[in-house]
Design brief:
single chain, about 210 residues, Serine Threonine Protein Phosphatase 5, Tetratricopeptide repeat, elongated
């Protein structure tokens, strides 16, 4: 019976090439099949049509167990897909906190950038993931990196967030860590200018207390 069940698990994880597929198991969230395909020596960094590895799929699905198994098996935490997303960048940008912790402990390239030329810290601040912001700051991601839009993490927090508690936490953390509050965007505007223009009262107060200028 055990042998029959094992065979069934492997059949469920067959890819398009007729071979047991790590990717297929991850896409279905089938942890038993994933374990068996990894043990069978199948590639952990195979890619789907979008260039996504199994680990990147696991990050998008916030599948912590799959991510842990793949990282333990040597999956590349920095492998980028066709649009320059990687497990590390997506985990940071979208607040996949437990997976981000695993990735930071297993070779994350802190200088890696997305298709906008931004580090993981910039979208983490913009998308309202303060815990990810704190983790990335603690890991040593450059605070004042400027992306191709001309924005730092602090600028994006002032330009693109709603100024609510998550944004306030991120701004506070960035300023406390030493982010430059007076960097200007490509139009010559600072974070304080944008925060005032958008009437983000709490963000304005934080920036002013840090010596920000328009």
């Amino acid at each position: 019976m055990k042998r029959f069940i094992l065979a069934g698990v492997l059949i469920m994880a067959i890819g398009g090439n007729g071979q047991a597929s790590v990717l297929a198991a991850v896409e279905r969230g089938d942890h038993a099949a994933l374990e068996q395909t990894i043990k069978a020596g199948n590639k952990v960094d195979e890619r789907n049509g979008d260039g996504q590895t199994p680990l990147l799929v696991a990050v998008w699905n916030d599948d912590i167990d799959a991510a842990r198994a793949l990282i333990s098996a040597g999956a590349d935490v920095n492998a980028k897909d066709n649009i320059q997303d990687s497990p590390y960048l997506v985990a940071g940008a979208h607040g996949r906190i437990e997976i981000l912790k695993l990735i930071l402990a297993n070779g994350a390239d802190l200088k890696s950038t997305n298709r906008y030329g931004g580090t993981a810290l910039i979208p983490a601040a913009e998308k309202g993931h303060p815990e990810a912001v704190d983790l990335l700051i603690a890991a040593g991601v450059k605070l004042d990196h400027v992306n191709r839009l001309g924005w730092t993490a602090l600028l994006e927090a002032a330009i693109l967030t709603d100024g609510g508690p998550a944004a306030q936490h991120s701004v506070r953390s960035l300023l406390k860590a030493g982010a430059d509050a007076n960097i200007k965007d490509f139009d010559g505007k600072t974070a304080l200018f944008h925060a005032r223009a958008r009437r983000l009262t709490e963000i304005v107060a934080l920036l002013e207390a840090a010596g920000a200028r328009e």
